Amino acid sequence: MGRTRAIRLVGAAKRQHIAATEGRRAARRIFPAGLSDRADTGTNERMTSEKLRLGVNIDHVATVRNARGGDYPDPVRAALLAVEAGADGITAHLREDRRHIRDTDIAALKRGLTVPLNFEMAATDEMVAIALDTRPHAACLVPEKREERTTEGGLDIIGGRDHLATRIRALAEAGIRVSLFVEPEPAVMDAARALGAPVVELHTGSYCEAALEADEAHTAHQLARIRRAAEHGASLGLEIHAGHGLTLGSVGPVAALPQIRELNIGHSLIADAIFVGLAQAVRDMRAAMDRTRAP
């Protein structure tokens, strides 16, 4: 590793440590007695709060479990803990290769959650059938490749329009709110509107990678892409969500965009949980998001 790269990594780690410390202090003020007064929204009811919502992705709890087989740690237990700490919803991605979340996890989450379940899925007949059987609050359609480590970009909803249209229709007719995980481009917002999906989730991966590299110009460029797409999508009547790669150090500028209604965050929360515990990691992220929307 070169000296410049090492300095950047140390600087990023220091900034994240500072953000986490500030987040914990803010969280103690915001959530002094837990969240026992939260309304029970029901798994299939809409999230109606005007605040910026936090969806916690629990995929990588399952990754740890599957590393050694067995049933521990339990993703459902992690989901319930995240809700107690301030999550407004839970996201789980049932991949075709079942590398982390299993079918039984989805069924257990549906039974056990009192907040909305966001079911991430490839746009395949198998996954549509599982969604129709499970009836989650929402289904987020994402691209999927077996050889990838994680989702590498947004769904091609322009080239894949015909393939997606019938699956979106089937999910919507079953009362499942459809979201499309897409690249932050105005033309893509137009395509989502034409497909009839009520929600888009903007892929923030490129922005997050630039932020981790401490490349200010590229970070600003990627943030501007997200801003333009959010503004255009909202003007079309789409509900705007965002996610992928967000950390305590990078979440602020995205959370500050007023058109964005929900952030879905997973890997960084599970990573931070190693050091501070899952509940504290969720509270830190919740506080970091809330600070950007404070009057």
Description:
- This protein is an alpha/beta fold and 295 residues long.
- It has a single domain, classed as TIM Barrel.
- Helices cover 51% and strands 15% of the residues.
- The chain contains twelve helices and nine strands.
- It has helices at 3-30, 59-68, 75-85, 103-112, 125-134, 161-173, 186-195, 205-212, 216-235, 251-255, 267-276, 278-293; strands spanning 32-35, 53-57, 89-93, 117-121, 138-141, 177-182, 199-203, 239-243, 260-265.
- An eight-stranded parallel beta barrel has the order 2-3-4-5-6-7-8-9, surrounded by eight helices.
- α8 (205-212) packs antiparallel against α9.
- The radius of gyration is 18 Å and the shape is globular.
- It starts with a helix and ends with a helix.
- Residues 1-49 have low confidence and may be disordered.
Q: What's this entry about, in short?
A:
By secondary structure, the chain is an alpha/beta fold.
Identify the notable features of this structure and list them briefly.
295 residues; alpha/beta; TIM Barrel; eight-stranded parallel β-barrel; 12 helices; 9 strands
Give the total of domains: 1
Arrangement of strands in the largest sheet:
2-3-4-5-6-7-8-9
Radius of gyration based on Cα positions: 18 Å
DSSP, total strands: 9
Helix content: 40-55%
Topology, element by element:
Layout: H1 3-30, E1 32-35, E2 53-57, H2 59-68, H3 75-85, E3 89-93, H4 103-112, E4 117-121, H5 125-134, E5 138-141, H6 161-173, E6 177-182, H7 186-195, E7 199-203, H8 205-212, H9 216-235, E8 239-243, H10 251-255, E9 260-265, H11 267-276, H12 278-293
Helix pairs in contact: 1-12, 3-4, 3-12, 7-9, 8-9, 11-12
